């Protein structure tokens, strides 16, 4: 909603959603095929109906997306629709009053809210006058329908516009977040290396001046330079490790985006309970989640994926368990791939364990890590196998 169709599937969905409202054309079509009019009148009626439907679909299809018509063109199209509705009803009779429903829909879905608030009642008023003129007794009943359907479409139109604006705002927030992260990285690197590099430069200059006359003092300066550079290297490695360590909350958010983009129905926990869970253990589960979701999106062919994060008490102590289950094929190959092997090794380093395999309706991966430092994973696998199924 709120965007033009990107492929044939979306085009079909939009066509069905808009085409279902063409039911109001049943009366004009029945009137034309009934033979109540002359040959010239029937031909003119079909031509007028085709022009009306073509303009209506073009207006609604294009103006519901991000590439909208200009305001003047929209008003021009609506005026043409209104003129055709009046002309066809006057010349061919009351069965054509249903065309005013489409004029009302066009007003509600394409015009600004303030303009639509008077355009919809105006359409209903014109329909009532035309209906009374052609002798339609049910014109008063159609007034209510024209008003309701027109104002309902103003709500749909506002929803579409809000959706488009939210998408733009989300993209802007993502860009601002990326810029803020780059600025934070720049500040951290400056704080880490600025002092160390300045000290190295100063001591290098001192060593250069001392070298001819005081080689022993120059050697001390060189030793200090070595110590400072080693410490700076340690600081940089720690900083880079912190940047590279994934967090489970971030991976859950990324998994939601990836699965939704792949048209996979995703069920994920809202906010993970990570109380007293060491960062290394959380990071290991985050890597597992990333790898599992990647497999679901790229290889499994699944249409549904369920992610659960629960705490379990085992013989080896409390464990935090992450399970990822989908209804796909689980990828290709009969044995564990490099991804699962790497995840197993990563979990073993923090005392955790991993199991993965086919279940009744798909593929399931379960990873467990201790919720406290120093716990082992031995025995946890046997005690909790199948407990989350």
Which value, in Å, is the CA radius of gyration?
34 Å
How far apart are the termini?
36 Å
Number of beta strands: 5
Characterize the quaternary organization of these chains: single chain
Unreliable runs: 332-336, 377-389
- Percentage of β-strand residues: 5-15%
**Element-level helix/strand string:** HHHHHHHHHEHEEHEEH
**Helix/strand structural class:** alpha+beta
Query: How many helices in DSSP terms?
Result: 12
**pLDDT averaged over residues:** 80
Describe the structure in your own words.
With 389 residues, the protein is of the alpha+beta class. Helix content is 66%, strand content 10%. The chain contains twelve helices and five strands. It has helices spanning 8-19, 26-33, 39-63, 71-92, 99-110, 113-133, 139-210, 215-244, 248-261, 279-300, 338-349, 380-384, and strands at 265-267, 304-314, 317-326, 353-359, 362-370. Strands 1-2-3-5-4 form a five-stranded mixed β-sheet. It is elongated, with a radius of gyration of 34 Å.
Based on the model shown, name its key terms.
alpha+beta; about 65% helix; 5 strands; single chain; about 400 residues; 12 helices; disordered C terminus; elongated; five-stranded mixed beta sheet
Ordered list of secondary-structure elements with their pairings:
Layout (H helix, E strand, L loop, with lengths): L7 H12 L6 H8 L5 H25 L7 H22 L6 H12 L2 H21 L5 H72 L4 H30 L3 H14 L3 E3 L11 H22 L3 E11 L2 E10 L11 H12 L3 E7 L2 E9 L9 H5 L5
Parallel strand pairs: 1-2
Antiparallel strand pairs: 2-3, 3-5, 4-5
Helix pairs in contact: 2-3, 3-4, 3-5, 4-5, 4-6, 5-6, 5-7, 6-7, 7-8, 9-10, 10-11
């Amino acid at each position: 909603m709120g965007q033009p169709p990107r492929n044939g599937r979306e085009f079909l969905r939009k066509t069905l959603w808009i085409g279902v409202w063409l039911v109001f054309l049943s009366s004009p079509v029945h009137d034309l095929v009934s033979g109540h009019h002359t040959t010239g009148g029937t031909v003119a009626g079909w031509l007028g109906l085709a022009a009306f439907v073509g303009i209506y679909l073009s207006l609604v299809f294009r103006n519901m997306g991000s590439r909208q018509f200009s305001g003047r063109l929209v008003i021009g199209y609506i005026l043409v629709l209104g003129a055709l509705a009046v002309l066809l009803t006057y010349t061919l009779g009351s069965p054509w009053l249903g065309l005013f429903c489409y004029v009302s829909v066009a007003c509600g879905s394409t015009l600004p809210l303030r303009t639509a608030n008077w355009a919809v009642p105006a359409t209903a008023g014109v329909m009532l006058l035309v209906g009374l003129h052609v002798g339609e007794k049910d014109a008063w009943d159609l007034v209510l329908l024209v008003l309701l359907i027109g104002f309902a479409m103003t709500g749909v139109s506002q929803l579409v516009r809000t959706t488009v604006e939210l998408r733009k705002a989300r993209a802007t927030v993502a860009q601002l977040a990326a810029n803020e992260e780059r600025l934070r990285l720049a500040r951290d690197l400056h704080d880490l290396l600025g002092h160390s590099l300045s000290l190295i430069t100063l001591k290098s200059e001192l060593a250069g001046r001392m070298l001819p006359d005081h080689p022993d003092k120059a050697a001390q300066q060189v030793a200090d330079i070595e110590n400072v550079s080693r410490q700076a290297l340690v600081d940089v490695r720690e900083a880079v490790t912190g940047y590279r360590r994934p967090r489970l909350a971030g991976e859950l958010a990324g998994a939601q985006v990836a699965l939704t983009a792949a048209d996979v129905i995703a069920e994920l926990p809202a906010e993970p309970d990570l109380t007293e869970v060491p960062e290394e253990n959380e990071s290991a589960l985050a890597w597992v989640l990333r790898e599992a979701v990647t497999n679901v999106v790229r290889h499994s062919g699944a249409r549904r994926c369920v992610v659960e994060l629960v705490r379990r008490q085992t013989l080896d102590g409390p464990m935090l368990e992450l399970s990822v289950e989908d209804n796909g094929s689980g990828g290709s190959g009969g044995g564990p791939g490099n991804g699962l092997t790497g995840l197993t090794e990563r979990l073993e380093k923090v005392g955790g364990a991993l199991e993965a395999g086919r279940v009744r309706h798909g593929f399931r991966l379960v990873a467990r890590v201790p919720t406290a430092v120093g716990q082992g994973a031995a025995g946890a696998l046997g005690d909790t196998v199948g407990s989350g199924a």
